[in-house]
Amino acid sequence: GDSVNQTEGPVTVSEGALLTLNCTYQTANSAPYLFWYVQHLNKAPQLLLKGLTADKKVEHEGFQATPIKRDSSFHLQKQAVQASDSAVYYCALSDTVREGCGGAEHKP
């Protein structure tokens, strides 16, 4: 089945320094969706980044990640980490089919 391995345990980084959280995955899908979620204290997880195209960098709020197909990785980085970035980060993948689907037809 599919699996994800990411940096475990607390990571200590000085403010203003580079943050890197590693994520590698295994899947039979040739083009999986990849995600990073962030969960701040006492809050629900929120989607931070999603990688949909191999080798194309995605960015949001100073965070960036690139899905690298050849080594099955989606490492998260932030150039200048802040105290407000203290949180739990989750890497995830999905083999959801990419094709769009229409909404259910409604008939009165």
Protein model, in words:
The chain is mostly beta strands and 108 residues long. It has one domain: Immunoglobulin-like (Sandwich). Helix content is 0%, strand content 37%. It is built from no helices and nine strands. The strands form three sheets. A four-stranded antiparallel β-sheet has the order 2-8-7-6, with no helix packed on it. It has a three-stranded antiparallel β-sheet with strand order 5-4-9, with no helix packed on it. The chain is globular and about 35 Å long. Mean pLDDT is 87; it is low at 97-103.
- Helical content, roughly? under 10%
- The first-level CATH class name: Mainly Beta
Relevant CATH superfamily: Immunoglobulins
Global shape = globular
SSE ordering: EEEEEEEEE
Which structural class do you get from the secondary structure elements? mainly beta
**Beta-strand segment tally:** 9
Largest sheet: 4 strands, antiparallel
Q: Kindly report the oligomeric state of this protein.
A: single chain
Q: In the residues, how many domains can be counted? A: 1
Instruction: Output the number of helix runs.
Output: 0
The CATH topology corresponds to: Immunoglobulin-like
Mean pLDDT: 87
Q: Approximately how much beta-strand content do the residues carry? A: 35-45%
Distance between the termini: 43 Å
Reported CATH architecture: Sandwich
Strand order of the largest sheet: 2-8-7-6
Q: Poorly predicted ranges (pLDDT <50, ≥5 residues)?
A: 97-103
Radius of gyration: 16 Å
